Amino acid sequence: MARKYGKKASEKVERAMHERKHGSLKSGRSGKKVKSRKQAIAIGLSEARRSGAKVPRKGGSSSRSSSRSSRGGSRSHRGGSRKRK
Fold it and tell me: Could you read off the pLDDT of 13-54 as tens digits, one per residue?
């Protein structure tokens, strides 16, 4: 069975975890210190993805777009074609 993540990906995650442990890992724009283990892993995988390592696409509900048909496209709350006086 093929490996899901490449060697480079595990190296990036390992480096991010090491930095988190020593308190030097910082998040993107805000620059705040990362305390969460899960966030450190996410940063490592993100860096690996950017460098072209073998990392599967992001999963979960946050990155998947919901289909338009399930949202319900009615705009009846705007008043339709009625004119205001």
Answer: 999 999 999 999 999 889 999 999 999 999 998 888 888 888
Instruction: Give yes or no for a contact between 53 and 12, defined as CB atoms under 8 angstroms apart.
Output: yes
Count CA atoms within 13 Å of residue 81 on its CB side. Answer: 0
**Rounded distance between C-alpha atoms, residue 53 and residue 39, angstroms:** 19
Q: Is 55 helix (H, G, I), strand (E, B) or coil?
A: coil
Sequence spans of domains, the chain: 1-55
* pTM of the shown model: 0.62
What gap in Å lies between CA 15 and CA 40, rounded to an integer?
Answer: 9
